[in-house]
C-alpha cells in the first residue's frame, strides 16, 4: 500500500501491537481493527516535513494518521495506550505485549509530536517572512520597460504548464489504479465464493465418504447374513420337499405351514436387503458425481488465482508508472522552486534599481 509515499517517507520507529478503534456509535467500546498483532510504524516525509503513524494489515491500511502538535498519547493501563485523530474522527488504541514496549512507543510519540511542533513553527516563520517580503515589495514603476518584466513571467508559466500536465497524468494513473484494484477486489470476492463452495463440497464429500465406508461395512455384514439366510432357506425347502414326499408320515400340516411362513419371511428379508444394496450403489454413484463437482471447483479456483496474479502484476506495473510520474512531478516542483527563487532575485534587483533611480532623481 501507498508505494508513492513510501519512496519519499522513511520509517523511524516500529513496534508490534494489537490495534483497536473506538466504536463510532457508543464512543465507549473498542472494536478490534486487527485479528492479531501487527506492525505500527512512525514515518517521516522529508519533502513535506510531515510525520505519520502507519499500520497495514494484509492489503488494508489500519492506521494512516498524520501527527499534529495537539495530539496526546495516553497510557490507560500497563500495556495499553490511546490517542485521538480529529481528522479521521476516531480514537486509536494499541495493546502491547509488554509494558516496556508501551513506554518506548509513548516516548517516541512524544518525541515525534515535538518534532512536528518545531516543523510547524518553522513553516509558520517562513510563511511570515514571505508575507513580509511581499508586503515590502512596492508596485513596479510604469516607466520600466516591458522587457524587464517579461522574463520572470515566462520563467514561471512554463513550469506551471508542466505541473498541470503532470497533475492530469497523475489523476489518470490514479483512476486506472483504482479501477484495477476494484477488478482485483471483485476477483478476490469470486475466489472467496469458490473457496466457500469448495469447502462445502469437501464437507459433503467427507460425510459421504464416511457414510459410504459405513455402508460398505454393512454390505459385507449383510452379504454374510444373506448367505446364512439362503442356506437356511435351502434347508427349509429341502425339509418341505421331504415332508411332501413322505406324505402323512412326516410332521403335521401345522408344522408345514410354519415352515412355509418362515420361508416367505426369509424371502421378504432377502428382497429388502437387495433393495438396500441397490440404494447404496446409487449413493456410490452420487459420491463420484460430487467428486467431479469438487474437481471442477478446484479448477475454477486455480483459474481465479491465475487471474488475480495477472491483476496484481498489472497493478504493480501501474504503481511503477505512477511512481515514475510522481518523480517527474517532483523534478518539476524543483524546477518551479528554482524559477521562483530566480524571480525573487529579479524582483530584489528591480527594487534596488528603482531605489537607485529614485536617489538619482532626488539628486
TrEMBL record:
<dbReference type="InterPro" id="IPR000697">
    <property type="entry name" value="WH1/EVH1_dom"/>
</dbReference>
<keyword id="KW-0175">Coiled coil</keyword>
<protein>
    <submittedName>
        <fullName>Homer protein homolog 3-like isoform X2</fullName>
    </submittedName>
</protein>
<feature type="coiled-coil region">
    <location>
        <begin position="205"/>
        <end position="335"/>
    </location>
</feature>
<dbReference type="GO" id="GO:0014069">
    <property type="term" value="C:postsynaptic density"/>
</dbReference>
<feature type="domain" description="WH1">
    <location>
        <begin position="4"/>
        <end position="116"/>
    </location>
</feature>
<dbReference type="InterPro" id="IPR044100">
    <property type="entry name" value="Homer_EVH1"/>
</dbReference>
<dbReference type="InterPro" id="IPR045027">
    <property type="entry name" value="Homer"/>
</dbReference>
<dbReference type="InterPro" id="IPR011993">
    <property type="entry name" value="PH-like_dom_sf"/>
</dbReference>
<dbReference type="GO" id="GO:0005737">
    <property type="term" value="C:cytoplasm"/>
</dbReference>
<keyword id="KW-0770">Synapse</keyword>
<dbReference type="GO" id="GO:0035256">
    <property type="term" value="F:G protein-coupled glutamate receptor binding"/>
</dbReference>
<comment type="similarity">
    <text>Belongs to the Homer family.</text>
</comment>
<keyword id="KW-0963">Cytoplasm</keyword>
<dbReference type="GO" id="GO:0007216">
    <property type="term" value="P:G protein-coupled glutamate receptor signaling pathway"/>
</dbReference>
<dbReference type="Pfam" id="PF00568">
    <property type="entry name" value="WH1"/>
</dbReference>
Amino acid at each position: 500500500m501507498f508505494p508513492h509515499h513510501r519512496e519519499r517517507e522513511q520509517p523511524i520507529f516500529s513496534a508490534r501491537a494489537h490495534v483497536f478503534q473506538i466504536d463510532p456509535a457508543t464512543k465507549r467500546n473498542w472494536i478490534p481493527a486487527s485479528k492479531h498483532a501487527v506492525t505500527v510504524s512512525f514515518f517521516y516525509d522529508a519533502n513535506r516535513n510531515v510525520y505519520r503513524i502507519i499500520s497495514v494489515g494484509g492489503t488494508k491500511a489500519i492506521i494512516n494518521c498524520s501527527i499534529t502538535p495537539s495530539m496526546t498519547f495516553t497510557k490507560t493501563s500497563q500495556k495499553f495506550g490511546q490517542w485521538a485523530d480529529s481528522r479521521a474522527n476516531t480514537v486509536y488504541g494499541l495493546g502491547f505485549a509488554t509494558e516496556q514496549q508501551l513506554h518506548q512507543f509513548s516516548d517516541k510519540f512524544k518525541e515525534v509530536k515535538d518534532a512536528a511542533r518545531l516543523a510547524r513553527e518553522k513553516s509558520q516563520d517562513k510563511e511570515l517572512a514571505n508575507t513580509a517580503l511581499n508586503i515590502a515589495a512596492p508596485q513596479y514603476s510604469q516607466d520600466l520597460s516591458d522587457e524587464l518584466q517579461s522574463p520572470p513571467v515566462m520563467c514561471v508559466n512554463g513550469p506551471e504548464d508542466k505541473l498541470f500536465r503532470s497533475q492530469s497524468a497523475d489523476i489518470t494513473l490514479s483512476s486506472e489504479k483504482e479501477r484495477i484494484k476494484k477488478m482485483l477486489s471483485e476477483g478476490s470476492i469470486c475466489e472467496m465464493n469458490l473457496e466457500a463452495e469448495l469447502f462445502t463440497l469437501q464437507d459433503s464429500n467427507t460425510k459421504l465418504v464416511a457414510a459410504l465406508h459405513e455402508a460398505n461395512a454393512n454390505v459385507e455384514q449383510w452379504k454374510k447374513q444373506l448367505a446364512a439366510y439362503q442356506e437356511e432357506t435351502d434347508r427349509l425347502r429341502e425339509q418341505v420337499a421331504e415332508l411332501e414326499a413322505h406324505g402323512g408320515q412326516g410332521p403335521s400340516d401345522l408344522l408345514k405351514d410354519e415352515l412355509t411362513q418362515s420361508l416367505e419371511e426369509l424371502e421378504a428379508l432377502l428382497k429388502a436387503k437387495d433393495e438396500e444394496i441397490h440404494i447404496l450403489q446409487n449413493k456410490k454413484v452420487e459420491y463420484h458425481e460430487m467428486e467431479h463437482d469438487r474437481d471442477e471447483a478446484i479448477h475454477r479456483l486455480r483459474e481465479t488465482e491465475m487471474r488475480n496474479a495477472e491483476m496484481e502484476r498489472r497493478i504493480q506495473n501501474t504503481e511503477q508508472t505512477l511512481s515514475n510520474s510522481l518523480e517527474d512531478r517532483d523534478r518539476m516542483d524543483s524546477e518551479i522552486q528554482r524559477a521562483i527563487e530566480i524571480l525573487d532575485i529579479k524582483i530584489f534587483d528591480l527594487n534596488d534599481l528603482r531605489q537607485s533611480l529614485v536617489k538619482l532623481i532626488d539628486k
